[in-house]
Design goal:
By secondary structure, the chain is of the alpha+beta class. The chain has four helices and five strands. It has a five-stranded mixed beta sheet. The radius of gyration is 18 Å and the shape is elongated.
């Protein structure tokens, strides 16, 4: 199996995922995944597609992530990893789609409008 290259996005985060057969090495920006994502919750989010398909130790995953915050990066990585696993095994598409890992979450922060303190908040109205 050659290296499979996929892309995952969430908010401002972009994750480029390189999947190949191996012993289960998981590196993110040249660091271990548990070092890059320090909390248990984010580590769980990142490994969800692998645990769902029960292939956690079968592949080497190398990821380059930039942009956004740590949660957006974790969810971008989850999408990219799910897309890579589909290229390896197309039959796994149904399970990943049912779990919601193939949907690109397009929600982003609404922009601030002029004459307002935030996107929707207004300055206090004064009658006099």
């Amino acid at each position: 199996m050659e290296v499979i290259n996929t892309l995952g996005r969430r908010k401002a985060a972009v994750a480029r995922v390189y999947l190949s057969e191996g012993k289960g090495n998981f590196t993110v920006n040249k660091r271990d995944v548990n070092e890059f994502f320090p909390t248990e919750t984010l580590q769980y989010v990142v490994k969800q597609p692998l645990t769902l398909l029960e292939v956690l130790g079968n592949y080497d995953v190398k990821v380059n992530i930039f942009g956004g915050g740590i949660k957006g990066q974790a969810e971008a990585l989850r999408l990219g990893l799910s897309r890579a696993l589909i290229e390896v095994n197309p039959e796994s598409r149904d399970a990943l789609k049912k779990a919601g890992f193939l949907t690109r979450d397009s929600r982003v922060v609404e922009r601030k409008k002029p004459g307002q303190p935030k996107a929707r908040k207004k300055f206090q109205f004064s009658k006099r």
